[in-house]
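sorry to bug you again but im stuck and you know this stuff better than me. what follows is a protein written twice so to speak, once as letters and once as structure tokens for the fold. id like you to explain what the token line says about the fold, in plain words if possible. anything you notice is useful, everything is just below.
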Amino acid sequence: MAFDRSKIKNVVFIMLDTLQFNYLGCYGNETIKTPNIDRFARQSVLFENAYSEGLPTVPVRRALMTGRFTLPYGGWKPLAGDETTVTDILWGRNMQTALVYDTAPMRLPKFGYSRGFDYVDFCPGQELDHTTFENEPLDPALKAEDFTSPSMVWDKDGNMIDDDSKQLLDEIGCFLRQQQHRRTEEDQYCAKVMGRADHWLQKRRDKNRPFFLWIDSFDPHEPWDGPSVWKNEPCPYDPDYEGNPILLAPWTPVEGRITDRECEHVRALYMEKITMVDKYVGRVLDSLREQGLMDETMVVLMSDHGQPMGKDEHGHGIMRKSRPWPYEELVHVPLMMHIPGVEGGQRVSSFVQNVDVTATIMDVLNLLDTEDGVSDHGMNTYGAEDFQGISLLPVMQGETKSVRDFAIAGYYGMSWSIITEDYSYVHWLVDEDEKNSADCVEGADKEMSEEMWTCTAGAQVVVPEHNELYNRRTDPFQLKNIAEEHPEIAEELLQKLKLFIGELRTS
């Protein structure tokens, strides 16, 4: 059938936290099993070059909810009262809205990321909820040190290595306290979130009205506790591994602390968790099909960011988001869209930013050109006039080959990067001379110590001393810095980056 806005009634947005794009079969991973997401990709438009611009968890969602970039304006912070969100725009229209989530950073006090949803179902227990359970008695059979490698915690003399070791054990202990009563795979966080989302779809919504459903799953975020960990069985992606399951690793550099073999095992556990997430995402997708909703529902599936997972191309020497480093393994995200009437099976190479997802949703709902106003009943209404995103419908319908010539990414006040077809360039806002030259951007002169800029315990604002340039065609995972060899290219990209962010700040 041909694309017809009037026939699309609903939107389902599925966010999977910390899912690296190249850990999916549809993005070329030949080892991992993700049959449900791969099937969805075959029936959807897959974007090969989607990038999150402001990182990590909270800034990405602010951009998605508001359709506006965050990198030039602010990092990890609440929604402001004067920021217009998707649910603000949908308020007062014939559209019921629902949020089902377990992403604890969205629920931080006064952060306001559930604002405007008619129905909100929060599934507690994920990261940042841990301290709720810190006084729970822990089953003596469960010991934190049994869920990480001893070499990450103790030195050769049996002494605790440092405070990072203690914090790691404390973090694992908090997690075990709240999860010690887990019995089956259905107790996994993702299973609960997807099950409760499907319950809303089948039992709670008004089936005579269109809907917007935002499903936000913190999995496959760490801890890397796939089903094998709780069954005390070998990891299916690493059955020969001998040693403790490494449910969490320190936020220190891996060199000298985590062996290559242990890093490999962590990645296997991560893959297992992604396969589990795929299973429960599949149940929601199957439910939409069984209810006959796919022909009238736009479905978006994406992640907010990836995850550093070890040395070299896996993570530039760290595990977890413990440094404000906007490298490929973190900023390049999977993105797929099913839109009734738009040909599925396409693979789009155009650069895409997360704000473009919001613009596309509003375009499909025919609300992209709406403006703020007052209803007939004297109530304020809101439009998308402040959006900075670009609708992706033209590129999906073959009207144009691309919507952007490059993408940007970074951490507010700490790092920026620009990604083009040929190169990627990373600019660190730490050297005083460089900070002073960044006069077009708010945050260039800020202290490098936001109270919370990521939800990873023990994270530190440590960045390289020099800006970096990489050949994206021959070195896609940014391993050989060629900035000194090609200073003219580095300078050109820096100026393009500054100009673009400066333009954003005036729009």
Observations:
- The first helix runs from residue 35 to 42.
